[in-house]
Amino acid sequence: MALVKETILKGPAIIDNADFSDLIEIMARLRSPDGCPWDREQTHDSIKGHLIEETYEVIDAIESRDFSELKEELGDLLLQVIFHSQMADEAGLFSIDDVINEIVLKLKRRHPHVFGDTKVSGSDEVLLNWERIKKTEKNRSSHLSGVPEGLPALSYAQKLQEKAARVGFDWRKREEILDKLAEEIVEFTACEKGSREIEDEFGDILFTLVNFGRHLGIDAELSLRRVDKKFRNRFEIMEEIAAENGKNFADVEINDKEKLWEQAKDKEETV
Q1: How many domains does the chain fold into?
Q2: Does residue 211 lie in a domain region?
Q3: Are residues 134 and 69 in the same domain?
């Protein structure tokens, strides 16, 4: 392994059997005075967007069931963890070893039914214990504390609902949520267009839909992402069909656009 590490750190080569320590050493080399100018210039703030981007690329690989791609994207995501840890280490704040130690201790603390004597009846009780332990650890005043406000809105809504549900604040039956949804739609349609009220009522509809999906075991954020991708794919097929017929899609009449949409659906299903 020493030879592998020396090869990695001293020059370009196709190597195999690298391990976690090799990645750490490469990141340290990239950030060193004789390393990469771009890597040396980065800060926690400058690369935080990459962390989000890499996370979504991992999700894309999972949804497409492309496990070769998933392997690569997980590596890219891991690199972000190493990058932030290296910068923190340089600043004397913490190291990657501290990061690993912290998560190991946390997992043991929050799984007393595995590493201790606590008895649980099932996964629901596991989650309830997790929230109780976490609330104590963080000295938080609210059970909703800790949900990142920077999450996409649908994910944020679902996380808030899940947290509330874990401490007993939840709908008892799905039918009740549908009744609430109908009520919210009535309130929405009664609002004056262009008002702040109609925007709030629309938000209430979305929030209720997220709740209903959650009760069905649906992740609202991922569900909408899949529909977004489906829409984009079909739209691009429509444009291709129009171009094949010598037409600019933007100039096609709406009735013909609807026909193109049906053709795109048919074409998509045969792929």
Answers
A1: 3
A2: no
A3: no
**How far apart are the C-alpha atoms of 263 and 21, rounded to whole Å?**
53
The answer to the question of residue 259 being in a domain is: yes
Nearest-angstrom CA–CA distance, 80 and 48: 9
Domain, as residue range, for 137: 111-170
* Whole-structure pTM value: 0.62
Long-range contacts of 104-110 (CB under 8 A, 24+ apart): 109/133, 109/137, 110/134
* Helix (H), strand (E), coil (C) string for 82-114: HHHHHHHHHCCCCCHHHHHHHHHHHHHHCCHHH
Mean pLDDT along residues 179-205: 92
pLDDT digits (tens, 9 = 90+) for 53-88: 999 899 889 988 999 999 999 999 999 999 999 999
Contacts of 31 (CB under 8 A, 6+ apart): 39, 40, 86, 87, 90
Whether residues 70 and 39 fall in one domain: yes
